[in-house]
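Lab notebook: predicted structure, single chain.

Context: the supervisor wants predicted structures on file for every construct in the current expression panel, including those that have not yet been purified. This is the next one on the list. No modifications to the sequence; it matches the entry in the shared construct table.
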Amino acid sequence: MRIITAFSDIISVIPKNRRGSFRKFVYASIVFSFLDLLSVAYLIPAMLLLLDRQKLASAFERYGIDINVFSPQTIAVTVTLLIAIYVVKNIFQSRFNTAQYHFLYQLSRELSVDAITHHLGAHYPEHQQQGKGIFMQRITTACRDFSTSLLASVMLLISETLTFIVILSVMLCFYLELTIFTLLGIGLFAWIIYSIKKKEIIMINTQYKEAAAKANAELVNIMDGYVDIRISGQSAQFIGRYANEQRPLDQASALLTATSANYSKYLEIFLIAGTAALILYSLMMPEGKDAFVLISVLAALSIKIIPSINKILNAVTMVNSHYYTISLLRRNQTALTDATRYDGFDKTISFKNIDFRYPQGEPILSNLNFSISKGQIIGINGVTGSGKTTFLHLAAGLIIPDSGSLYLDDGPVSGNPFFSFTGYVPQQPFIFYGTVLENITMRQDAARIDYDYIEILLKNLSMEMLHALPQGLDTVLQHNTGRLSGGQKQRLALMRALYGRPQFLILDEATNQQHEAMERRIYEFIRHVSSAQDMAVLTVTHNPDIAGFCDRVYRMENQTLVPC
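Prediction complete. Output recorded below exactly as produced.
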C-alpha cells in the first residue's frame, strides 16, 4: 500500500501532458531490460560452446535439439550472431538512454517554469512570506533532483525488478530448491543492507530538503549585502555561516555517493558466498543432473542478476533520498485563484470603510476612506510603520482588504484583482539582469517599442547618460547593478513605470535618493504628465517641498488617512 501511495505521489508531480511520455519510457526501459536478459540467455550456449562442446552436445541431445556443435560453421554463426545481437542492442539502448535523459532534463525545465508561473500567479502576501532560499530550491535543485534522480530511478527500479522476477520465475521452474535458497539469501542480504542504511537514507532526504534552502538563503545574503558586509568587516562571519549551512548538504551528498558505490562491494561478498553455496550444491546434486550445465547457466545469469541487484538497491536509495522533492513540487499544484483583470477607470478610484491586517498581526488599516480622481496628485506622509506602504499595496491591487470595498468609478472591485492600469515604483527600485532598454520596456516586443517616448523620458528625467554606456541602451545591467547610483536606479524605475502610460501612478518614496533640485525636476515632469495624460498620482514622501506639487496631502495615523 505504501509503494502504491508513493508511486501515486510521484505521478501526481509529473505534468499531465508529460505522463504519457513517461509511461512510454517506462515501457521502453522494460523492453530493453528484457532484451538484456535474452542476450544473456543466448550467451549461455555460447559459453558452453567455448567451455565444453561435448557436454553441450549431450545437453542438446537430452532436450531433443538437433544442432551439430562440432561444425566450424555452427561456431562461426553462433559467434557472429552473438556479436551482432550485442552491437545492435547496445546501439539502440544508447539512443534510448540519450532520448530518456533529454526527456528528463526537459521535464526538469518545465517543472521549473511551472514553479515560476505559480510564484508569479500567487497572492502578494504569499510572496512576502516566502524565503528566497526555499524559492531557489523549488525552482532549481528540487526540479532537477526529481527528474534526473528520483524519476530516472523509478524507471530503472520498475524495469529491473520485473526482469529480476522473470529470472527467478525461470529458475523456480528448473531449480526449485536452489532458487528458494537464493531467494532466502537475497532477502537476508536486502534486509541487512536496508537496516544498515535506513537511518542514513532518512537523514539524506531530510538534509537535502532543509540544508539546500538555508545555504541558498546565505548566498542571497552575500550577493545582496556585498557592500554592507565588506564595510562592516564581517566577511568571515558570513562566509562561515554559509560554510556551516553547506556542510550538512555536502555530507548528505557524500554519503549518498558513497552508499551507491558501496553497494557493489556488498554484492561482492554476496557473490562470493553465493558461488561457494553453488559449488557445494553442485557437489551434492543427485546423479542424472548436469552440474556443468547448471553452473554455466547460473554463471551467465549472474551477468544480469548481480548488476540488477546493484541497480535495484541504488534506485531504491535514490528514490528515498530525493523523495523530499515531492512535497516541494506539489506546492506548485496548489490551485490559484484566477485574477480578475481591470484595465482602467474613467474618473475616480474610491476606498470605503477599509480594514486590513496581516495574518496573526495587529490591525494596520481601520475604517479607511479615500478617493483619487484622474489628473490629481495626492501626497501621503506619516511615521515609519504607520501603514503607508500597505495602503499603496492595496491601491495597486496587490492585497485584498479584510473588509470594506474598492470602487473603480461606481463599480466595486471583486475577486482577486489585477490592475493593469497602474504603474508602481517601490522604495527599493528593481533592476534586473538585462539590457537598459529591457529594464525600461520590461522586455516588450521590439516592434512595439516607442523609442521617441523613451527619449522624452530620458531627457526629462536627466538620464541621457545611459546613451554614454558602452553599448548605449543595449548595455547589459546585472541584477541590482552597482554601475548606477541609487538615484539613477530610482529614475530608471520611474522611467519604466511612466513608459507604460499608466492611468494610476503609485510612488512609494520613489525620489528619496535624489538631491533637492533633481527631486523638484522629477515632480515638475510628473505634474506635466499627469495633466497631459489625465493620470492620477499617489505619492508617499517626507519632503514638505513636494506638497506644493500635490492637490491634497494626507497623513497616515491611527490606521487611517487624515487630511493635512
